[in-house]
Structure formats: structure tokens, C-alpha cells
Amino acid sequence: MSEQITSVNNKLIKNLTKLKQKKYRQENGLYMIEGFHLVTEAFKAKKSYEYLLGTEEALAEIKDIFPQLVTSQKTVIINLSVAHHLASTKNSQNIFMVLKIGQPQNYHFNFGKWVLLDHLADPGNVGTIIRTADAAGFNGVVLSPKSVDIYNPKTQRAMQGSQFHINVITENLLTVIKEMQDNTIPIYSSMLDKNAKELPEFKKVPQVGIVIGNEAHGVTSEVAEICDQKLYIPIKGQAESLNAAVAAGIIIYYFS
Fold it and tell me: Is-annotated flag, keyword Zinc-finger (predicted)?
């Protein structure tokens, strides 16, 4: 374990601070998570990491759970001012882990239950949907390339560690949908459309792909055209629509 870093101008700290921005995450192939819960979830999932950084107090606290984490050569002690500089939250727990960006290696679209996110823009919504899919026992979530960056700190916090439990993949949805359909997985698109059926009309199925569209614009026409059926959640009150994450949660649990 290295000596304590006390300056925000330290080269390593300056480089890690840049990981708050997507551009630098992509350039370096690294991202950073923050807080005891995410760090412990990553470690329990045996994720390879580059650095564990924390104040002496934070490292002492996590040492009680995972002593091997703190004794690693990858562990870096930082002071409070450096921790506040690295933090993406107002009330930081002063512990951080730097991991490599990378998609799951062992996944197939030939079975299972999946959520497909078509250009979703809100990191909180995306993180919440991934967490819900995990809770409901789904195999994974596929994001279109124009969806929000899953390594965004807000997305990471909203996922609450579920990113380490299920497949979270960025891929062209048209390609994924075709592969699922070739393997007899029905694809249902959530959208308001004259040909859409109410959710309760659908039979429970052992395998399914559920498409959730952009918060403002819905499912793209290219994706909607190739889905097997369109569905919607009936609204009984005066609200015009449901939040994307809430709608996704209702549909996910209906088919879970």
C-alpha cells in the first residue's frame, strides 16, 4: 500500500478525476465507482480492478469485511480533500474503485428474458431499470448505442451493484432483436399505438424481449417495425403517461 496522497494535483488523482467525463472514460478504458456498497458488490462479483482509493478511516472500515482488498498493492490512501475532489456525491463515503470498461464475455441472445432500451437518455431511469431487471430475475439489459453511458456516475449509483449481477450490454438493437426472434423469443414494444394491446391481454411467456423507448420520443420507428407486438399499460387516472422506469418495472414484473 502506498503512502497517503494529500494533493489534488497528484498525477494519478488528476487522471482519475477526468474519469467523471465520458470522453476520458472512453480514452482510458476505465471508470470509477464510489461508496461502500458498490465497492463491496464489485469485489463480491470478483471484478478485476485497477485501484482502490480511500481515506484511512474508510479503508479501515472496509478492511473488516474484505481484508485482502486493503492489503493489495492496488490500494491507495488519500486524505479528505482528495476524496472530496474525486467524489461525485455531496455526502461521499470517501472510498472509490477504478475498474476497466468492458462488456460481459459470455452472453447469448438465444434464450431468457431481456429488457431492450432504445435511446434512453436519463441515467437514473436506465440505472433503475437495470436494478429492476436484476431483482426480477431477468438475464440482462441491452442498451442501444445512443442510450446513456452506463459508466456515468449517476447511472452507476442508480444500478446499486446490479451491473455486477446480470448482463448489461450495449449493442445494435436491430441486430439483437433479429437474433432473439430467430431463437423464437417474442419481442414486445412498450408504446402508445392504435395496434397496441393492453398489458393484461398478454400471456405470460417463459422467454421475452421487452423494448422501452426514449423518455420523450418513445421507441424508434425502425425498432417498432420489427417487434412482434406492441403493448401499453392502461392509465386509469388523469396522468398522460408513466415515467419510463416505472413503466418498465410494471412490464418486467408482469413477465417475471
Answer: no
d(CA 105, CA 152): 21
Pairing of strands 197-198, 229-232: parallel
Burial status of residue 109 (CB atoms within 10 A of its CB: 0-12, 13-18, 19 or more): buried
Measure CA 27 to chain center. Answer: 20
Q: Are strands 208-213 and 113-118 parallel, antiparallel or unpaired?
A: parallel
pLDDT tens string 191-214: 988 889 999 999 999 999 999 999
CA angle 148, 20, 121 (to 5 degrees): 15
Show the domains of the chain with their CATH numbers. Answer: 11-100 (3.30.1330.30), 113-254 (3.40.1280.10)
- Residues 6 or more apart whose CB falls under 8 angstroms from that of 183 comprise 109, 110, 111
pTM of the model: 0.92
The DSSP letter of residue 117 is: E
Local structure of 187: helix, strand or coil? strand
The edge-to-edge listing of strands for the beta sheet with 75-77 is: 30-34, 95-100, 49-54, 75-77
CA separation for the pair 199, 192 (Å, rounded)? 12
